[in-house]
């Protein structure tokens, strides 16, 4: 028999686990992390640092640096996210204008910047200056006429196609993960899923560059959603510089939650809205400490963007607006109607977009992503150019729709018939009858609305960066502005009606159409994403007025109720399910009366569960079991006869432990006995050295009995972030339930295809 004393140096895995051991504790790609294990590892690390800090001044300083590393990471994320957002805003502004003309004094100036520097610009023609020339003026010296229009039209389409082709080519060749919005994948990653490379440096670089290109191309998409992905890439990069985060997937996700908040902060200039968005929409695990750090990261990001001042108006977004007129109770009815429209639009968009994306995945259409992008860009540019409301960038369109009509506005939407005898303050212009410009603008807006609704369905989900916030807000803002003008004209022409008599007297400034546009934008965005609290706060931060919170809340809640009546999934959850990611949504309810025994594997008629025994298998047996199965781990039992559960061993750690033992320990061969007990088993003389693997064994795996209701099991998986759960009866192992099994069972109970859940 081999005695225990001989084995101290050779049989104990502890010896080489305490040294730097590559890949221990890491996870394979497209697998779920074990939240409990990550939490436990961080607690052990923190306990070790605390005890060491009492030994010397240097260890104490190291413990302080460790404590401050979280705040340093947040500072760096905020600075980089704010800087990238500012650069993207400036580049988009310039490249969008490049489709229509060029600045002769400095080609890197946008149209607005070019005319700022001109001394020959008049107030009435503030968009016209000699330094800015359209392509027709530059190439054929004509600014008016059919030939000039056709040349400008042709070059507009060519620039759009050029930008879109360059973007899709860069994504396809260098960073396939840089496509889409990124928020469905961010939600899945924050729930504990591993997608290697999704937050990598190449993805960050390519997404930043291509985001500028696709927004400038005029496609019906926004940069706000992808900015969350960009900020999370920044978070992943900086967390990899600190071992506290790089070696613990749970801690890394706390950083990514804060980075998501910084992304929304710079996207909308809404730091508080960003924190609430991260809490409400994307984060799975959000402790109080992460809330403070998210707030700090969002603050730094917003401050950085404000310092860059990309729009030259000291605001963080292009469509910041202030209103001077209060709203009245009678207006709640049209606000709620806009909420209903937002809910219906959200439902229509989700169903049509998911159907189109499913068709893209299952047919030959998905094999030609470059061609698809080129065709959609060409259709968008050809239809968009003749209509001034679709030709301009979507952010500029939203800005114009949100604006209140002051005395200095030159927009068609403000072409009212003025009373020549009016002597009123500039910011208190009374309601007036609509002029011909307003009526033609209404027709153009109606056509633009239909176009946006249709083209956005086909654009979102292509193999380019594509955000949904701005197109959804544009749809709502157009509908809202038209409703607002309608209510305004109704109030002007019928001020003696009972609903207008009390609050809208002749000559008063009663209705603000821009407010209706803002409420409509909130309603449509809420209908598509199902955001509520964070949405209202983001919109409130955009306007800087507390007074309009009630209309926004009414529209957001109504749009959510209406959309939820047709289906509980928002667009991001729908795309998560479409891609088969293992995301266990906290919002999903499980009300069926099934038991753990109905879901566990093995089921009746299936092969028995693959297990390891505590001291009777050889290294070769373990390697054969690993080779023949693809399970993430194996339960360890006393023996195959008793099936008494001892613990659980992860597949990856078994592979690494055996590989390292063969390299570093003498005497470990294929027929060496593997044991998971504290003391070695009794072996005949001349047996090869046994291999002790107790160190990698989880001695307290989560277990439930076979009669535990699945409602409880689902709750446990949600709240503890488990990868798997063992099913026992009186300590005897019966089976195993994985996260994938839970998701497939939930899909089956909801009459959906359980095979759509593809990953573990």
UniProtKB/TrEMBL annotation:
Pfam families: CBS, Voltage_CLC. This is Chloride channel protein. GO terms for molecular function: antiporter activity; ATP binding; voltage-gated chloride channel activity. Belongs to the chloride channel (TC 2.A.49) family. It comes from Sylvietta virens (Green crombec). It is a multi-pass membrane protein. SMART domains: CBS. The chain crosses the membrane at residues 68-92, 153-175, 195-215, 227-243, 255-279, 332-356, 368-385, 441-461, 468-487, 515-540. Keywords: Antiport, ATP-binding, CBS domain, Chloride, Endosome, Ion transport, Membrane, Nucleotide-binding, Repeat, Transmembrane, Transmembrane helix, Transport. Its main location: membrane.
């Amino acid at each position: 028999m081999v005695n225990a004393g001989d084995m101290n140096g050779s049989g104990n895995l502890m010896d080489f686990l305490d040294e730097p051991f590559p890949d221990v504790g890491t996870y394979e790609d497209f697998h779920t992390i074990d939240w409990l294990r990550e939490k436990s590892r961080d607690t052990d690390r923190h306990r070790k640092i605390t005890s060491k800090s009492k030994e010397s001044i240097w260890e104490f300083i190291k413990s302080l640096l460790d404590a401050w590393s979280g705040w340093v990471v947040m500072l760096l994320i905020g600075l980089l996210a704010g800087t990238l957002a500012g650069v993207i805003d400036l580049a988009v502004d310039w490249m969008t204008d490049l489709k229509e003309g060029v600045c002769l004094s400095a080609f890197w100036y946008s149209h607005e910047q070019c005319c700022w520097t001109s001394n020959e610009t008049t107030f009435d023609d503030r968009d016209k200056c000699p330094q800015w020339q359209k392509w027709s003026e530059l190439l054929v010296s004509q600014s008016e006429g059919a030939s000039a229009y056709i040349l400008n039209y042709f070059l507009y389409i060519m620039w759009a196609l050029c930008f879109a082709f360059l973007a899709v080519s860069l994504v396809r060749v260098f960073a396939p993960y840089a496509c889409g919005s990124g928020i469905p994948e961010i939600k899945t990653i924050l729930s504990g899923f591993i997608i290697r490379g999704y937050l990598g440096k190449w993805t960050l670089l390519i997404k930043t560059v291509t985001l500028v290109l696709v927004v400038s191309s005029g496609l019906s998409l926004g940069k706000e959603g992808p900015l969350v992905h960009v900020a999370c890439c920044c978070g992943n990069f900086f967390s990899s510089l600190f071992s506290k985060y790089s070696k613990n997937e749970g801690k890394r996700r706390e950083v990514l939650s804060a980075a998501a908040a910084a992304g929304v902060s710079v996207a909308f200039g809404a730091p508080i809205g960003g924190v609430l968005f991260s809490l409400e929409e994307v984060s799975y695990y959000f402790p109080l400490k992460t809330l403070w750090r998210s707030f700090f990261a969002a603050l730094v990001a917003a401050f950085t963007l404000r310092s860059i001042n990309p729009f030259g108006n000291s605001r963080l977004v292009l469509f910041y607006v202030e209103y001077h007129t209060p709203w009245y109770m009678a207006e709640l009815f049209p606000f709620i109607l806009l909420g209903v429209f937002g809910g219906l639009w959200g439902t229509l968009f989700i169903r049509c977009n998911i159907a189109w994306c499913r068709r893209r995945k299952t047919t030959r259409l998905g094999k030609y992503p470059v061609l698809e992008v080129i065709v959609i860009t060409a259709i968008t540019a050809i239809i968009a150019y003749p209509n001034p409301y679709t030709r301009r960038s979507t952010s500029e369109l939203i800005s114009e729709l949100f604006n209140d009509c002051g005395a200095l506005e030159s927009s068609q939407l403000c072409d009212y018939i003025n009373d020549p005898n009016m002597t009123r303050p500039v910011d208190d212009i009374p309601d007036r009858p609509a002029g011909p410009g307003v009526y033609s603008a209404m027709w153009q807006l109606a056509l633009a609305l239909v176009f946006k609704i249709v083209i956005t369905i086909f654009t979102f989900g292509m193999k380019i960066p594509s955000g949904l916030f701005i197109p959804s807000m544009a749809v709502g803002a157009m509908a809202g502005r038209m409703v607002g003008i309608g209510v305004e004209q109704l109030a002007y022409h019928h001020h003696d009606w009972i609903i207008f008599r009390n609050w809208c007297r002749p000559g008063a400034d009663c209705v603000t159409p821009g407010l209706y546009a803002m409420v409509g934008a909130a309603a449509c965005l809420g209908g598509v994403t199902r955001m509520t609290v964070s949405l209202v706060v983001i919109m409130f931060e955009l306007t800087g007025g507390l007074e309009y919170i009630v209309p926004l809340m009414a529209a957001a809640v109504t749009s959510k109720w209406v959309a939820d009546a047709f289906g509980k999934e928002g667009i991001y959850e729908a795309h998560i399910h479409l891609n088969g990611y293992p995301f266990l949504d906290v919002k999903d309810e499980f009300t069926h009366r099934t038991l753990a025994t109905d879901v566990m594997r093995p089921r009746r008629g299936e092969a028995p569960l693959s297990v390891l025994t505590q001291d009777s298998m050889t290294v070769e047996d373990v390697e054969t079991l690993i080779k023949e199965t693809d399970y993430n781990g194996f339960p360890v039992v006393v023996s195959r006869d008793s099936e008494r559960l001892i613990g659980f061993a992860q597949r990856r750690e078994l592979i690494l432990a055996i590989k390292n033992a063969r390299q570093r320990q003498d005497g470990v061969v294929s027929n060496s006995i593997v044991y998971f007990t504290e003391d070695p088993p009794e072996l005949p003389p001349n047996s090869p050295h046994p291999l002790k693997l107790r160190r990698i064994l989880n001695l307290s795996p989560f277990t439930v009995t076979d009669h535990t209701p699945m409602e409880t099991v689902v709750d446990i998986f949600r709240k503890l972030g488990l990868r798997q759960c063992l099913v026992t009866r009186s300590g005897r192992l019966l089976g195993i339930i994985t996260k994938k099994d839970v998701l497939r069972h939930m899909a089956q109970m909801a009459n959906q295809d359980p095979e759509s859940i593809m990953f573990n």
